[in-house]
């Protein structure tokens, strides 16, 4: 009896999907050939099942696009493109796709080879980072897989540890398979496909090239940037850019400068050649980045004579006496937990934040210059009277009142008799008026009963009452 792998509910034989959560009921047979046995993994767009080819008695993997997405033309077309792209490349380091079809209820699926191993993301969660003798062979295999894809006019656009599978093949450890071409871009005829709408960003923020984060034109050089980020993470155990959220991370890719790997982890003794190689791949300008072939050659030159074409299980377990054990990792930012779903956002919000930040920096710079100019002008005008001959009773040198004019009266000697408050206010002139002697006796205020001739008193208090 069919059973839902999620909620474990059982249904009749004529029901293929659970009405509660939409999961395919197991066991289920697709097109009379592929029996779904168990669920291997799930993501935001689809579910991967362990299946059996009934005719060949062979274990395969079936990726099933979720029902609601299968009915969306854009997602359906992108899912089909993923299967077609992976099958057309035909490279040993790219997952092999053998079939594409639809379920009786309209869900898209494709069949691929069963990969028995773990992702590079899972390995980094456990090991945090890899020594160069192990990291370089993995990264060079990733480069070879992407080179083959680029030769077919296909850009992956989502290179990250979760899309790099590590297998055991005929006694070989760390055999790489690059998977998930779901958001790949076919350069030939891309304008006619219309899969990427204007103002949309596709990819994972931590590995996104600047032109990809800003919604610009994306080509093979975006994969070079992502491989540079991947190399940085594998060799140091941390990402070059990490913000508090997706937009903050994307802004760092647009504006920030990456710290060299050897400076990020000085305890690992990373060579300066690795710094130059990675920082070159992380260049903001795509034209300044090396090609994948040049990047791969630079990686292979890091450990000459110690990178065999075929790795052994002994190397995978770390029992290699050629290199000393790596130092324990220093406390740093937590590793990226998997899986990381690709980001699909609008560039309008990011561009607005980017323009606002650049405008704020410009306004702040102009404001700083104006402030410095005002301080300099004030200093120049305030120092002029300070060099004039001071009053007779003033001390010979008083640098403190020059920097702060307000406390200047405190430096003058006290008078013999304290003047009234009104006179004290009159004895606080500006710096340029110190040569004017203060008045000893302020003019007496006219009394109400004896007003000055020609002047009306302020208040009249002694007027006789009006007899009328």
TrEMBL record:
What Enzyme Commission number(s) appear in the record?
2.7.11.1
Basic and acidic residues: bias regions: 427-438, 446-462
Q: Which UniProt keywords apply?
A: ATP-binding, Kinase, Nucleotide-binding, Serine/threonine-protein kinase, Transferase
Q: What is the lineage of its organism?
A: Bacteria, Pseudomonadati, Myxococcota, Myxococcia, Myxococcales
Chain spans, region Disordered:
384-468
Q: Please note every region of biased composition (Pro residues).
A: 402-422
Q: Which residues bind ATP?
A: 63
Q: What GO MF terms are annotated?
A: ATP binding; protein serine/threonine kinase activity
Kindly provide the name given to this protein in its UniProt entry: non-specific serine/threonine protein kinase
Extract the InterPro entries matched here. Kinase-like_dom_sf, Prot_kinase_dom, Protein_kinase_ATP_BS, Ser/Thr_kinase_AS
- The Protein kinase domain covers 34-303
Q: Which organism is it from?
A: Archangium gephyra
| Compositional bias (Low complexity) | 385-401
Coiled coil start-end: none
Signal sequence interval, chain numbering:
none
């Amino acid at each position: 009896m069919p059973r839902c792998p999620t909620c474990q509910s059982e249904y009749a034989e004529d029901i293929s999907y659970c009405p509660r959560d939409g999961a395919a009921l197991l066991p289920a047979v697709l097109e009379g050939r592929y029996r779904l046995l168990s669920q291997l993994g799930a993501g935001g767009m689809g579910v991967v099942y362990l299946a059996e080819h009934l005719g060949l008695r062979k274990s395969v993997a079936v990726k099933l696009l979720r029902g609601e997405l299968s009915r969306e033309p854009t997602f359906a077309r992108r899912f089909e493109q993923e299967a077609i792209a992976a099958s057309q490349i035909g490279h040993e380091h790219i997952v092999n796709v053998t079939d594409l079809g639809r379920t009786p209820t309209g869900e898209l699926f494709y069949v691929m080879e069963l990969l028995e191993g773990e992702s590079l993301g899972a390995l980094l969660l456990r090991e945090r980072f890899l020594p160069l003798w192990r990291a370089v062979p993995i990264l060079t295999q990733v480069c070879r897989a992407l080179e083959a894809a680029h030769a077919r006019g296909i850009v992956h656009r989502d290179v990250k540890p979760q899309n790099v599978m590590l297998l055991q093949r005929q006694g070989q450890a760390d055999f790489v398979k690059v998977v998930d071409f779901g958001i790949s871009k076919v350069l030939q005829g891309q304008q006619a496909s219309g899969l990427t709408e204007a103002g949309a960003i596709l990819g994972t923020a931590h590995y996104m090239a600047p032109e990809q984060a800003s919604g610009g034109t994306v080509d093979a050089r975006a994969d070079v940037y992502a491989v540079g980020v991947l190399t940085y993470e594998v060799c140091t155990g941390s990402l070059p850019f990490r913000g508090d959220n997706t937009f903050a991370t994307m802004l760092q890719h647009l504006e920030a400068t990456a710290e060299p790997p050897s400076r990020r982890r000085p305890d690992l003794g990373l060579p300066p050649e690795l710094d130059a190689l990675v920082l070159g791949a992380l260049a903001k300008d795509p034209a300044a980045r090396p090609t994948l072939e040049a990047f791969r050659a630079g990686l292979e030159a890091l450990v000459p004579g110690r990178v065999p074409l075929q790795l052994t299980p002994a190397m995978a377990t770390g029992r290699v006496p050629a290199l000393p054990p790596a130092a324990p990792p220093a406390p740093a930012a937590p590793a990226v937990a998997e899986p990381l779903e690709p980001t699909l956002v609008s560039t309008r919000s990011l561009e607005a934040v980017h323009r606002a930040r650049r405008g704020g920096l410009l306004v702040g710079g102009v404001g700083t210059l104006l402030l410095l100019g005002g301080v300099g002008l004030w200093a120049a005008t305030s120092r002029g009277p300070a060099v004039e001959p001071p009053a007779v009773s003033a001390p010979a040198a008083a640098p403190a009142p020059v920097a702060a004019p307000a406390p200047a009266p405190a430096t003058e000697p006290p008078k013999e008799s304290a003047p009234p408050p009104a006179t004290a206010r009159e004895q606080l002139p500006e710096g340029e008026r110190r040569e004017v002697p203060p008045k000893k006796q302020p003019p007496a205020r006219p009394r109400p009963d004896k007003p000055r001739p020609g002047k009306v008193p302020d208040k009249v208090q002694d007027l006789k009452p009006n007899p009328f």
